[in-house]
TrEMBL record:
One of its GO terms (molecular function) is DNA binding. Transmembrane segments: none annotated. Residues 58-88 form the DNA-binding protein H-NS-like C-terminal domain. It comes from Achromobacter arsenitoxydans SY8. This is Histone family protein nucleoid-structuring protein H-NS. The keyword Coiled coil applies. SUPFAM superfamilies: H-NS histone-like proteins. Residues 5-37 form a coiled coil. Keywords: Coiled coil.
Length: 89
Protein backbone atom coordinates (compact mmCIF):
# COMPACT_ATOMS: atom_id res chain seq x y z
CA UNK A 1 0.00 0.00 0.00
CA UNK A 2 1.46 3.31 -1.07
CA UNK A 3 0.76 6.30 1.14
CA UNK A 4 0.74 9.85 -0.03
CA UNK A 5 2.23 12.84 1.75
CA UNK A 6 -1.00 13.83 3.55
CA UNK A 7 -1.53 10.34 4.95
CA UNK A 8 2.01 10.21 6.29
CA UNK A 9 1.68 13.69 7.83
CA UNK A 10 -1.60 12.64 9.46
CA UNK A 11 0.09 9.54 10.89
CA UNK A 12 2.94 11.67 12.21
CA UNK A 13 0.49 14.05 13.92
CA UNK A 14 -1.33 11.09 15.44
CA UNK A 15 1.92 9.59 16.73
CA UNK A 16 3.05 12.94 18.13
CA UNK A 17 -0.25 13.30 20.01
CA UNK A 18 0.06 9.75 21.34
CA UNK A 19 3.66 10.44 22.38
CA UNK A 20 2.63 13.57 24.29
CA UNK A 21 -0.18 11.72 26.08
CA UNK A 22 2.20 8.95 27.13
CA UNK A 23 4.77 11.51 28.31
CA UNK A 24 2.15 13.25 30.46
CA UNK A 25 0.98 9.97 31.99
CA UNK A 26 4.54 8.90 32.81
CA UNK A 27 5.35 12.36 34.15
CA UNK A 28 2.50 12.10 36.65
CA UNK A 29 3.85 8.78 37.91
CA UNK A 30 7.39 10.14 38.16
CA UNK A 31 6.27 13.27 40.02
CA UNK A 32 4.23 11.18 42.47
CA UNK A 33 7.26 9.00 43.16
CA UNK A 34 9.53 12.03 43.63
CA UNK A 35 7.05 13.65 46.04
CA UNK A 36 6.78 10.43 48.02
CA UNK A 37 10.58 10.15 48.30
CA UNK A 38 10.89 13.79 49.36
CA UNK A 39 8.40 13.18 52.18
CA UNK A 40 9.96 9.84 53.11
CA UNK A 41 13.49 11.21 53.42
CA UNK A 42 12.60 14.71 54.60
CA UNK A 43 14.49 16.30 51.73
CA UNK A 44 14.60 20.09 51.92
CA UNK A 45 14.46 22.53 49.04
CA UNK A 46 18.08 23.57 49.59
CA UNK A 47 19.20 19.94 49.52
CA UNK A 48 17.33 19.38 46.30
CA UNK A 49 18.24 22.56 44.46
CA UNK A 50 21.40 23.75 46.20
CA UNK A 51 21.85 27.02 48.05
CA UNK A 52 19.50 29.87 47.40
CA UNK A 53 21.26 32.42 45.22
CA UNK A 54 20.38 35.13 47.70
CA UNK A 55 22.65 33.29 50.16
CA UNK A 56 25.57 33.97 47.80
CA UNK A 57 25.01 37.72 47.68
CA UNK A 58 27.80 39.68 49.34
CA UNK A 59 27.03 43.21 48.13
CA UNK A 60 23.74 45.02 47.56
CA UNK A 61 23.09 48.51 46.20
CA UNK A 62 20.90 50.26 48.80
CA UNK A 63 18.86 52.24 46.27
CA UNK A 64 18.39 49.84 43.36
CA UNK A 65 18.64 46.50 45.14
CA UNK A 66 21.16 45.23 42.58
CA UNK A 67 23.43 42.53 43.96
CA UNK A 68 26.90 41.16 43.36
CA UNK A 69 28.51 38.05 44.84
CA UNK A 70 32.04 39.49 44.79
CA UNK A 71 33.28 37.16 42.04
CA UNK A 72 34.36 38.39 38.64
CA UNK A 73 34.33 41.93 37.35
CA UNK A 74 32.59 44.31 39.73
CA UNK A 75 29.46 46.01 38.41
CA UNK A 76 29.57 49.74 37.64
CA UNK A 77 27.58 50.68 40.74
CA UNK A 78 30.32 49.38 43.06
CA UNK A 79 33.43 49.91 40.95
CA UNK A 80 35.88 52.38 42.51
CA UNK A 81 33.86 52.79 45.72
CA UNK A 82 34.30 51.63 49.28
CA UNK A 83 32.69 48.20 49.17
CA UNK A 84 32.11 47.99 52.91
CA UNK A 85 29.05 50.25 52.65
CA UNK A 86 27.43 47.80 50.20
CA UNK A 87 28.30 44.68 52.22
CA UNK A 88 25.33 42.46 53.09
CA UNK A 89 25.44 41.53 56.75
Amino acid sequence: MTQDYRQVRARIRSLEAETENLRREELQLILAEIRQRIREYGITQSQLFGPDLSDLVQYRHPDTGQTWNGVGRPPNWIRGQDRSRFLVK
